[in-house]
Amino acid sequence: MQTNRKTLLEAHNLTKTFTTPEGKPFGVLEDIHLELQEGEIVALLGRSGSGKSTLLRCLSGLLRPSAGEVRYRGQPVQGPMPGMAMVFQSFALFPWLTVQQNVELGLEAMGIPAPQRRQRALEAIDLVGLDGFEKAFPKELSGGMRQRVGFARALVTQPEVLFMDEPMSALDVLTAETLRLELLHLWQSGRLPLKGILLVTHNIEEAVLLADRILVLSSNPGQIRAEIAVTLGHPREREDPAFQELVEEIYRILTTRPAPERATLEPLTLGHRLPQAPVGALTGLLERVAEGPDYGKEDLPRLAEEMHLEVDDLFPLLDAAELLGLAVLQAGDIQLTAEGQRFVKAGLERRKHILAERLLQQVPLVGHIHRVLHTRPTGRAPEERFLRELEDYMSTEDAEKVLATAIDWGRYAELFEYDYNTGLLFRSEEAASPAAG
Amino acid sequence: MLKLGFFTALRVTFFVLLVTLIWLPIGVYVGLRPRLTQWVQPLAQFGAAFPANLLFPLFVVAIAHFRLNPEIWVSPLMVLGGQWYILFNAIAGSAAIPNDLKEAARLYGLRGWNRWRRLILPAIFPAFVTGGITATGGSWNASIVAEVVQWGDTTLVATGLGAYIAHWSTGEFNPHVGLGMLVMGLWVLAYNRLIWRRLYRLAEERYRLD
Hints:
By secondary structure, chain A is of the alpha/beta class. Chain A has helices spanning 52-59, 99-109, 114-127, 143-155, 173-189, 204-210, 241-255, 279-291, 300-306, 311-323, 338-345, 348-362, 364-375, 383-390, 396-412; strands at 7-19, 25-37, 40-46, 67-72, 75-76, 84-87, 161-165, 196-201, 213-218, 223-229, 297-299, 327-330, 333-336, 380-382, 416-419, 424-427. In chain A, β4 and β5 (75-76) form a beta hairpin. Chain B is mainly α. Chain B has helices spanning 2-31, 34-49, 56-65, 70-73, 75-79, 83-95, 99-107, 112-146, 161-168, 175-205; strands at residues 148-151, 154-157. The mean pLDDT of chain B is 87. At the A-B interface, β6 and α2 of A face α7 and α8 of B.
């Protein structure tokens, strides 16, 4: 046996492909290699679209990879295995069961007799600080307390590997921080048989706070782009310069694209996954960068903290700014381009005009919609039509998001109008189309 | 008259329960498979829209041929139309079970009866109540045409409030019809208050997914 005794979980050449409604495959994860060793907390960090939740599901046996394999203690994983437990972003508590019944769920399935079940559940509930709430139903509890139930339900089965899928992202900042510290405390106390934790997060600081190793994923398809060892001792302080340096480094990695992904300068395709960036938020971000102390240049960690944006919120805005040629990202900084500067200084009408110009030039989908509406005598088209076209490139769910973004941008720029109730897109009458002059 | 209503209530209850036992598992099987749901759901809706009394003659011929007791065997006619509501609510309910709950159930090893008891039945309970109310309502209604059925020379009659109303519905005004309707109305009201309303409240309070 060449199996390393200390390796808990490993994935080799893991690839996951889904198919669009049209039957075309699209890659979500590509050629992932990773290992979870005993005694480790590993964080999977990535932007939306990096497939990090899909990866967690493949590792836990909830999803079968399209290619490659996952092994748990050397055994191939073909479905959820005893010794694994998961904490969900949405808590995933059964609303018709009490706290105690929820916690007993896994034990019941294991066939453990009722008295022992009860005993162990009460201990687990006690461990997460929920004693007194055994008979409560989930809806009576706050988000933080619900997630405690989620932890109790996971820990009561005495797992070796704990999967956590953005466990704190549905909680308020203070509750999340408390739970993080308690989790860390439990982990370090050695009171649990737990041997390793895999944490999916889009919160960079959370990753640096908890993990021994951080794997940074790139997007579409998700690949492991970088591995960062966090050697800081506990407790880790956010104010610690070493902590901040790590956060900076991760921002740098996330903003520095590997050569093939550096697609922004090349023309995009119709099926480009437009980042979900509402125009209002985008404008706010650009204004903030322009007003900043460095005048048109800003450090991303500082920006994220000031604007209370996590990776999933911040990066779509950055992507959009870059895609429209209003800013460039470099080494963890954002810098406005000349066009971006002009945009920020302009009044509302002028801004719409600039945006319209950028959209027609840079975003094929918006240009396509605009063209279709202008060639049709009626000047209108159902959104369904464009949705079907996008489904050649991506899943229905993604297609809807991308189209919604394109419509949001195009409406703001007065390139076309949209009626939500009928789902019809209209040619914008009075808008002076910049392409036409 | 109340006694006649009791017989009809008995038939409605028994046969709605029976079709539930048949269609609920099938509905869940379908509802948990999105591709299949796309195919079956329209069929169930078509079944509900199809005029069930067109099929009554088939039953009459069969019952007469095998000399079956009409007291029992005309009853299936009452749920012929209503059963589809049970089916498509079971499909809709199980198709709407949140993915994270299904994942949690899988991850924690819920299988077989445990999975039904802890996840599926509670999750589809509100949809079942909706289907049950519709199906029983429809069955009460259908009892008027189902407890007395005729095809050619054969007339089958079962004891019940539906048969009573049908018997006096001769086309002319008749106080018996009014009385029969009134009693049926009271029965339906009492039935819904005593059974469905409680279940509905339970579904709202305990089994709602939000």
